[in-house]
Structures are given as structure tokens and as C-alpha cells.
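Dear Dr. L.,

I hope this message finds you well. Following up on our conversation about the binding site, I have prepared a predicted three-dimensional model of the protein together with magnesium ion. For your records, I am including the exact sequence and ligand specification that went into the calculation, followed by the C-alpha cells. Please feel free to forward this to your student if that is useful.
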Amino acid sequence: MNASSKPEVLGIASGKGGVGKTTVSVNLAVALASQGKRVLLFDADLGLANAQIALGHRAPFNMSHVISGEKSLADIVTTTAQGVRLIPGGSGLLDMAALGPKEAAGVVQAFSELEEDLDYLIVDIAAGISPQVMTFMRAVQRRLIVVRDEPSSIADAYGTIKVLSQEGAADQIYLVPNMVDSQAAGEMLFKRIQDVSLRFLGQPLHYLGSIEADEMVLTSLRQHKPLVALAPGSLASRNFRALANEIGQLSPLEGSLGGLSFFIERQLS
Ligand SMILES: Nc1ncnc2c1ncn2[C@@H]1O[C@H](COP(=O)(O)OP(=O)(O)OP(=O)(O)O)[C@@H](O)[C@H]1O
Ligand SMILES: [Mg+2]
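The resulting structure of the complex is given below.
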């Protein structure tokens, strides 16, 4: 890894599946890239090449080739039409759950051989709280937990926060309410979860803004184009750009080792 490169490492998680992790990862990556930031999106949801599909990108190789030893990470990195560097996820044959903890740690460690000058590494983490998912959660610097205003999503987001808190990896947790009716509704959802988290876990959470429900999200998925590129004026696109701006304004983390080395050393400790 290039010593001058000190990317921020953001993990996008959710607990429950299907609540918008990939939508947030992809659109945040494209929004940051369109602001001139150098972004690498790592699709760590190894089961399906979700991020690749959402970006409308076809890559010949993906993480399954890295895990089988046929390719190195550097071999499979590609650049999408939107200028985002992408490490494609699995082929559908490989389940994240089939990865042993050692292999998951190996995937994280493989980043040490990657020479990329980056501002942001965004990791689209699989659903659930399996040991493999937690390996990625520990390795990132900031954890963005996507949550919808429905009981199962809230319960699973809380469950994720609880495990992180028990593991002592609970600093830098950000809630990203998704598919909400308004910014005010999103902030209320954040406050509800933050109240419970403070009361039962003593765990504060951070808030950067919400993503509103927008039917253009589905249109963009159907067209295999990220929303912020397809319909920059849409409601959710504006929300994604606002989220990117908020992230850009966060102060660098104190005591961070910086960059991809952080991604490696954090999970080894
Ligand atoms: N803000 C939004 N407005 C409308 N629809 C949305 C929004 N965000 C996500 N969706 C829809 O929710 C569905 C799931 O989104 P997405 O694939 O991003 O979730 P995920 O958490 O990555 O799922 P998985 O756990 O399967 O990886 C998609 O069909 C998408 O169209
Ligand atoms: Mg996904």
C-alpha cells in the first residue's frame, strides 16, 4: 500500500438483509467520486455480485477468484463508468457464511498488498452477525448501519449494535435510516434507536442524515445505473449527496493508523 494513501474505511452494515446496504454503498461511493474523491468500493457481501450489478459493471473476475487463490486483489480491481474503483463480490457460488473466520481474516489482510491511492474505502458488508461479518465490522473505522422503520430491521440493527458493543468495537457507529417518509421521520427513528442503545447498552450512536423512500431507486436498479448518476435531481440522490457531504466533513479519526493498514491491523488485534 502506498504510504501517502490514508483512506477512511467505512463499513456499510444492517443486521437484517434487504434494507438498502448495497443501495447506500453504491450511491455513496458514486456521490463521493463525483466530488473528486478517490473511492474504492469493496463488495464484501460475497454471495452475490450485488454492487457490480447496481453499478452496471461487468468484471471478469471477483472475490471468488481471490479466495480460490487464482487471482490477487490487485488483479481483480476494476474501474466503473462512474470512476469508482471496485472489488467485485462473489459469483453467487460462494456464500459469505462458507468462509471460515481465517479466510475472512485473510481477505481483510490481502488489502496489505493493494497499492491504491484512496480517500475512501467503502465496504458493503453482508447481512447478519456471523463471525465473518463481525470480522469486517471490526476492521472498518466507521460503521454505518442502515435501518428501516420496521420492527425486524430495528431489532436486527440493535442486535448488531449490541454485539459490537460487547466486543468493544462500538465506537464510530452511525445509523442511516433508509426508505423513510421524510428527514424528520428518519431523525425520529434515529432518536428512538439511540434512546434504547443508551439505556440498555450505554452506547451512543451518530447521525448524518436519512435516505428517503424514492421509487427512482427501483428504476435505477432495473436500469443497472446508480441513482445519483441516473437521476441526480431525485429525492434520494439529494439525500445521498448530503450524506457524502456530511462524511466529508467528519474530522479524521484520532489515533487511527490510517488507510488500509488500519483495515488490517484492527482485525488482527
Ligand atoms: N431509499 C429507497 N427508496 C426506495 N427503495 C429502496 C430504497 N433503498 C433501497 N430500496 C429498495 O430495497 C431493496 C433492497 O435494497 P438493497 O439491495 O440495497 O439492500 P441490501 O441491504 O443490500 O440487501 P441484501 O441484504 O440482499 O444485500 C431494493 O429493491 C431497492 O430498490
Ligand atoms: Mg446488498
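In brief: The CA atoms of residues 67 and 107 lie 7 Å apart.

With kind regards,
A. P.
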